[in-house]
Design brief:
about 160 residues, mainly alpha
């Protein structure tokens, strides 16, 4: 966190030398990893803004579904920090431990959930084998905008 703050200060100082203020450009509600993207001068800030717009401001995918996808990605990546954050998000949406087991086993009565979860696993573990048919299966249940959100959440 200290390294991030120092890097951000250095970036702000460099921008000030050029007569540019970066403070207005970066929404304060972004997560630390989104703010870290802003340190890449050419595309990072644009990427952080795009993520913010798709996932927060203009979201058509439920927060619960995004939390489920985050859980799947965290588990597949075996990232303890991400697992803890995803579990906290899931619990805030009413999931209990039994629900987490169902998520891990891809057990659901709802076809839309099954497709989204399977896509998340495949995009996380084998992105090189994603095919048009994977997207076609999502299209049966989700709009184009929602599919873009799924890709952002998983990616």
């Amino acid at each position: 966190r200290q390294a991030f703050t120092q890097a951000q200060q250095a970036l702000n100082e460099e921008a000030a030398k050029k007569g540019v203020s970066l403070e207005w450009a970066m929404p304060q509600h972004l997560s630390p990893w989104q703010r870290a993207l802003s340190l890449f001068p050419r595309v990072g800030l644009q990427q952080a803004r795009a993520i913010d717009i798709v996932l927060n401001r203009d979201s058509q995918l439920s927060a619960r579904r995004k939390a489920e996808l985050a859980w799947i990605v965290a588990r597949e990546n075996q990232s303890l920090l991400s697992i803890a954050e995803a579990q906290s998000r899931l619990e805030s949406h009413g999931h209990d431990r039994g629900d987490l087991v169902k998520l891990d086993r891809n057990e659901s009565e709802e076809p839309a959930e099954i497709e989204a979860w399977a896509f998340a696993r495949k995009l996380t573990t084998q992105p090189q084998v994603i095919e048009d048919s994977d997207i076609d299966r999502l299209k049966r249940h989700y709009s184009h905008h929602q599919i873009a959100e799924i890709v952002y959440v998983v990616g």
